[in-house]
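Worked example 4.2. Below are the chains of a multi-component assembly; read each line carefully before continuing.
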Amino acid sequence: MSTVPGAVVPGLPTRPGTTRAGRAPRGRLTARARHERNAGLAFVSPWVVGFLVFTAWPILYSLYLSLTDYDVLNDPTFVGLDNYRRMAADPQVRLALWNTLQYTVLQVPLYVVVALALALLLHQAGRARGFFRTAFFVPKMTPPVAVGVLLLMLFNGQYGLVNKVLAVFGIDGPSWTTDPVWIKPGLALVSLWGVGSAVVILLAALQDVPQDLHDAARVDGAGWWRRTWTITLPMISGALFFVTVVNTIAAFQMFTEAYSAYFGAGNSTYSNDAALFYVIYLFREGFQELHMGYASALAWLLFVIIMLVTAVQLLVSRRLVYYEGDQR
Amino acid sequence: MVSRLSVASCTDLCSKEVVVPVHQRQHPRSVARRVPAAAASAAAVALLLGACATGTGGDAQTTDVDFSATPSPGSTLDVMGFGTGDEIGKVRHDRAVEALGIDVKLSEGALDAQAFLSAAASGNPPDLVYADRTQIGTFASRGAILPLSACIDAQGIDTDAYVDSALEQVTFDGEVYGIPEFNQVQVTMANADLLAQAGLDISAVDGSDPDAALAAAEAMTRTDGGKLSVIGFDSKLPEFLPLWAKGRDADLLSADGRTAQLDDPEVVTALEKAVAVYDAQGGFPAVKTYRDSADFFGAGNQFATNVLGAMPMEQWYVNVLNESSPEAPMAFGPFRGTDGEVLAFATGSAWAIPADADDPAAACAYAARMTETDAWMAAAKARADARAADGLVFTGVLTGNEEADAKIRSELVPADAPQPWADAIDAVYAANDHAFALPANPADNEFKQAWQDAVNRVLNGQQEPKEALAQAQQEAQAALDEAWQKWDDEQADGGSADQDAQ
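Applying the procedure described above to all two chains together yields the following C-alpha cells:
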C-alpha cells in the first residue's frame, strides 16, 4: 500500500512527538505531501461533488421529508414521527412488505442457482463459449417495461407459451397473471430473462479457478460433482456472494416489471394485491397520491431493512465465503 | 417556513450530546475551532433544507390576474399534456394560434401530474395544462391551478353550453377550475350473430336487467377443451362499477364530493351482479386472460372473430370497429339503468391554468378558442371529410359542448348512415344526453384507488363484494376526510388573512 509521506496511517501506532516521516512537526505535512494530497483531492473531487449533490444530499433531504407532510407543491409541514406511526398502522405496508419478502425468498435462490448452472454449462462450452455468453447476455438489454409486457404474453393462463409447453407434458398450467398464488412465481420466473449479467460474472470467476486444483483432484479420483462441490464452489464463493447480495437488494426494490404488468397503462384499472410490492406502494403514495413525506418515510424503512439484511448476509459470508489469499 | 425549518434542524443537530472517547479528546482550542464550523455547517444544512422546501401552492389568487389582457404578438404559450395527433386537435390548435398571433409550445403526451406539480413547485409551471377532468379537484385543492370565473367572464365563455356532467367535474367547492372538452360515454356493443343464435336481442345485454345479462352471458359463452372460446358478456370491471351502480340509482360519491358511498347496499348488489356474469363464464381470471390475448384494435378484434357476445364500451370503439372491421355483425344500443333510462359514466379532459403561469391571459384565450363551437365545427368537418375520403362513416364527435354537439350532429353526421352504424350514432348521442360523472374532490386518486382495489380483490377471489366495499369505504372516507380537512383549514386561514388585511 502506498502512503503519503507524513500522513498517519490508520491502525498503525505512532510514537508521541514523532511523525512517521520523522521530518515535519506533528500535524504538519511536508510541501510534497500537501501537493500530493491536494492533487488527490482534485482528482476525486468530481466524484465527491457528484456524490454529495446527487446522492448524499437527496438522502439527507428525504430523511427530513420523512418527518413532514409534503404534497410536492406546498411547503412541507413538520409532523415529527407521524409518518412512521402511520406506517406502523398501515395494512398496505404490511401487505407490500410481505409480498416483497415472499418474492425475494423465491427469486434470489432461483436466480442464483440458474445463473450458476448456466455459468457451469458455459464453462464447458469450449470455443462456442463466446457466442453463448453473448446470447445469454442479450436478453438483459431488454427494457424492464418490455419484460413486464412479455410476462403477460408468455404467462397468459389460457393462451400463453408457458402453459402451452406445460400442456405438452400433460400439465394444466395455472393462471399465472391473475391467480394471487401464482403471480410471484411468475414474476420470479420472468426475472430469469435478465440472468445473463450474473452468468457473465460467475463465468469470469469460474475461469479464475486454478486448473491445477482440478487436475490434482482428478488424479485423486474426484468426479465432476465432487470437484464442483469442493473446489469450484468455494473458489467462486466471493462472486456467488456478490451476485446474491446485489440480487437480494434488487429483489427488495422490485418495481418496473411488476408495475408495467399489473399497474401500468395496460392495466389502468385492473391490479392484483399479490403484485403490490413495497416500491410500487411507495411510488403510488409519492407520485400518484402526492404523499411525498409518507413516501420518504417508506423509503427509509426499506433502506433500513435492506441494510439489515445485507449486514446479516455479510456476517454469514464470513463463514461461507472464501477470498483468494484468505488465511483459513 | 425557513425559520421553522431552521429551528427544527438546529434542534436536531444542537440537542445531541456527542460523547467522545478519552483517547480522542482534543485540545480545547481545536474544539473551539470546530464548534463554529459545526454550527456553520448546521446553519448551511438548515438553509439548504429551507431553500429546497419552498413551494408555490396554496396561494393561488385570481384577483390579481387580468384575463382580459391582450396576448403580446410573438410571445410563447407553454402548454403541457396536449398534442395535435389527429385532425380534431390540429385544426383547433392551428385556428387558435392564428387567432391569437402567438407561438404555442406543446409538451405532448398525457399530462404527468408529478412533472407538472414539480414544475409548479419550482416556480416554473407551464402556462396551460391539459388534464383528465378527474385531476382537476386534486390540483385545485393544492392551489396548483387558478379558479377560472374571471377567465370565463373575460373571454365571454358560455358555460351553459357545456355538458352538465363535464362542468360538474371541473367545479370544485363551487368554483370552476377547468374548461372541459370531450366527453367519453359508454354504449352497449354486441355481436348480432351470437345474440341471434341465443335467441336474444340487444335489450338483453343493455344493463336494464342484470339477471337477463347473466342469462345472456350463459347462453352465449362457449368453451373448447375446458378453455373459454367465446366470452358471452364482459361487464368491464373494475372500470365501469360507477356505471353499474348508477344503473341501480346509487352513486359512489355524494354530490358534494365529501362522502364516500361505496358500502351502499345497491353498490354492493351492482358489484355482485356484475361479478356473477364473470363467475358464470369460469371466473374473471379466465375472461381476463382470454381478452388479454385478443386483438383489440385490428381486423381480428373480438367482435369480428365472433369470440365476444357483448359489453358496454366507450364510444371511441365504435370508430375502431367501423374502421377495422366494417363488416362485423354488430348491434349497438345505449346502456340503461334498471329503470330502463339511458345512462353513461362520463369522463373527459379539461384545460386548466396553473397558479404562477407567466401568461394566464393568453392561456385563457387559447382555451376559449380551442373549445368554442366554431372550432369544434371546423375540426369535425375535417374529421368528416377524412372519413368520407376513406369510405368510412363519420359517427360524430362528443365535444363536451352541447351546442357544438348538436351542430355537428345536425350538419355533419350523416342522417342516413347505414346500419348498424346509425344505431351506434343514436346510442352515442343518447348516452351523451344522459351522462353522469363523479364530482370533483381533493382526493380523487385515493378514492378511485380504494374502489378499484375493492373490485379487484373481488375479481381475484380474495374478498366478497360486501367485505371488499366495506374496506374500500373506510379507506376512501379516510382519504376524503383528510383532504377536505386540509382544504377547509386553508380556506379558513385564507378568510382570516383577508379579514386581517381589511
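Take a moment to check your reading of the output against the notes. Chain A has two domains: 34-84, 91-320. The first strand of chain A starts at residue 68 and ends at 69.
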